[in-house]
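Fold this sequence, please.
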Amino acid sequence: MIVLNILKWLSSFLEKFIKISIIVSMGGIAFFVNVAVFYRYVLDDPLTWTNEISSYLLVFSVLFGASIALRHNEFVKVEALASLLPGRLQWFVTVGTQLLIAAFLVICIESPSMLIQKAILTKTISPALGIPMVHLYHLLRVGFICMLFFVSISTIEFIFDIGTKAGNGEGSK
């Protein structure tokens, strides 16, 4: 149980850090879009880099926002079939679903490998900002790792906190 408490503390800390980062990222998007509009329509001198940075911040926000959604089991899901099953089978369906999500995330963690290798070899940079693309591709991997961590924590909590209730036929969350 001490390991579970440490994992919960780490999860809580990471979640707070990600939430603050997303708030800053969304604020950055609003700021850079307004700067772009001001320069384009007021000064009649459009900036080339504001669209790129806003796009990267949006990808960052969605990627890490998805990890928070996974942490709280807030993704859209169809529970019509699972709700018809008895408590024990509902438990197995929930755990099986979480394991499938984890397997998919493991594949996603590995998927940027070729992009990263190619970006290292070609020293590719983003067109307007000049950021090495290898950093952006690594950010994809970090986002998927956060998702895997949060889905793992949620699954462990489900198994230890709710699993015994569902197994006894009392139903699940």
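Helices lie at 2-42, 50-71, 80-84, 87-110, 113-122, 133-167. DSSP finds six helices and no strands in the chain.
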